[in-house]
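User: Before I run my own analysis I want an independent prediction to cross-check against. Here's the chain; please return only the structure tokens and, at the end, one sentence I can use as a sanity check.
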Amino acid sequence: MAVTEKQKQEVRQLLIEGRKIEAIKYIRENFGLDLLQSKTLVEHVEADIEPWEFKNASRSAPAKPLKAGCAGKGIAIIFGSIGAIMLSIAIYIYYTDAEQIERSELVIGTVVSNPSQPTIEYEYKGETYQYHSDVQSNPPSYDMGEEVEVYVDTDNPNNAIINTITERWFAIIILGIIGTVFTGVAALVARLM
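Assistant: Structure tokens:
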């Protein structure tokens, strides 16, 4: 059975206008097919019509699986970019801290104020320095007068890192987790496109 382009366009036009029954009748009359064969043929033509082409969105229009279009690409790019930035920052902090610790000397410091976001005083080569932590905790992680290990940068004694898990790893872990989640969402959205 040879179908001309004109016949295919006629069926296609009927479907676009929401006239599926007329399209089935057209196939039956012009090709001598039974009802089931005509319906099957019409559904094949209908499957090739994009949803936006339908003038009168009818319930007979085939349901095509949703795909992530431009919005999906935008989400993938945004989430992927944020994830990459977060992971880059986490890696940067890890390596800069590791370099500082390599050139540092371990000394003992004392918590002198605000145990929930402590100020730690330490001595290095006869000079007294203070380190103000950026990490705050409730309940406080320290007690007043508590002694803690401090890595003091030998090149610049004002730079210090408290030798605790929260001070050394908290930002790296949080940024790493967020970066991984955002990158994972981007990869998932990209895969669905």
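Sanity check: The chain has a mean pLDDT of 84.
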